[in-house]
Amino acid sequence: xxxxxxxVGTVVVALAxxxxxxxxxxxxxxxxxxxxxxxxxxxxxxxIGPANAPVxxxxxxxxxxxxxxxxxPIVKQIMAEFPEKTRLVIRxxxxxxxxxxxxxxxxxxxxxxxxxxxxxxxxxxQPKWAVHGAPDIEAAWRIAGExxxxxxxxxxxxxxxxxxxxxxxxxxxxxxxxxxGTPTFFVNGKPLTEFGSQQLYDLVAAxxxxxEDMATQ
Length: 217
What we know:
Blueprint: H1 3-13, H2 15-23, H3 37-40, E1 47-48, E2 55-61, H4 66-81, E3 86-92, H5 99-111, H6 115-124, H7 126-129, H8 137-146, H9 151-157, H10 161-176, E4 184-187, E5 190-191, H11 197-216
Parallel strand pairs: 2-3
Antiparallel strand pairs: 1-3, 2-4, 4-5
Helix pairs in contact: 1-4, 2-4, 4-11, 5-6, 5-8, 5-9, 6-8
């Protein structure tokens, strides 16, 4: 089985989650035009992958969102297809109760160089803490600690003015692009207008091809 087939297989497994996501990603509210770079990529944003990669995937992510949980490994798998060509820029879109506090945990994890393992652990264990309407943030802290976070130190960092500023800027940008659901993706500034993992793969692959074609001209 080649790598693309592996990706497609993963997509099939995640279909149930995507069905739920569709209700949270109404097509009528999807931005249809390329967005200003300044609204999509900020200097403060977490980046996964090569910092100078020519193809930038921007994901507006809510750590409490089931669809974000389902999509995260797929995004990583797409990036693995193009390891030197893609980077992931994460923007926060705290749409659920308690998500702002979860963002604080993630930003505190960045201070300790633990962003990626804490993010992956929080998403993997999401059903244990991100109950809609009754989030268990103490459970989220405990889970972050299991990923290697120094929780005692991080509790202070999570309340730092710089973290509040990051969250406020991301919310401002989220509103500027009229985002109403998560995850919302842009690839090199182009919006993913039809929600789906294959659609995201195709958009990323097209941008990679365009970059490669330009390099050979």
